[in-house]
């Protein structure tokens, strides 16, 4: 099971020998205005480090930036909508030119699903999920990789979801977008292995954030956002290829793979979930 994977990169092996610690000088985080991304920003905030924080809501982003400055970090913020992938790529290149990024954390994501009373998801929402959860993070990871390969240093973190492992009938757009990101992260990691650039895919279960608070179904084994940030930072430090938490979901993933399709379909079709409408703005 990959959450307990012993497969580690060269940096982690060196760490075990007491040689180096991964101590990034510049960390760029998307989705830094809320939830897991905001906690990761606070986790990495310290004097001597530059944080480049991206978000969509300027006021929330500024609050996180202020916390991080109080903790001694130099902070630059950028407000943009990741549904515009071309603008995101250009923005990344601008930020990376000013502050070469050695840790790129693509945490931004959009959670959405079919409402209880609806027969299908909305086509426009599925498009938005594909752009924000898959297309733009994959493009940004590639833009980061292009630069990191030249510097022969860097680490990229992609926030997937355990929803990627299951064909959720009420959230085809979300689980499909995260499944795409999951496969992308695996392929990117193998493509970059020889260049000294690491990739960690993070697949969380439920984490207590504004995103999960909209969901009204049961949320077993929910973690807090600070707990999630600590687990992710440790996985980065250990150069893990894939972090799944809580561990139970790594087991469910294997069950989903080995279960005969008719049984899996019958279980999936019985699953129900609902969510509150998205907050305006
Ligand atoms: N919470 C969970 O239970 C859970 C479980 C599995 C996976 N995840 C994944 O973990 C990641 C973080 O989620 P979270 O729980 O921290 O959610 P959250 O509190 O809702 O935060 C989501 C972040 O993504 C940003 N974002 C969303 N749409 C955007 C857009 N179009 N353009 C730019 N930024 C956008 C938000 O920016 P603004 O707030 O500024 O709009 C916010 O900073 C996501 O990728 C999510 O899919 C979460």
UniProtKB/TrEMBL annotation:
It comes from the Bacteria. Pfam families: adh_short. Residues 25-210 form the Ketoreductase domain. InterPro entries: KR_dom, NAD(P)-bd_dom_sf, Sc_DH/Rdtase_CS, SDR_fam. SMART domains: PKS_KR (SM00822). Belongs to the short-chain dehydrogenases/reductases (SDR) family. This is Putative oxidoreductase. It comes from Gluconacetobacter diazotrophicus (strain ATCC 49037 / DSM 5601 / CCUG 37298 / CIP 103539 / LMG 7603 / PAl5).
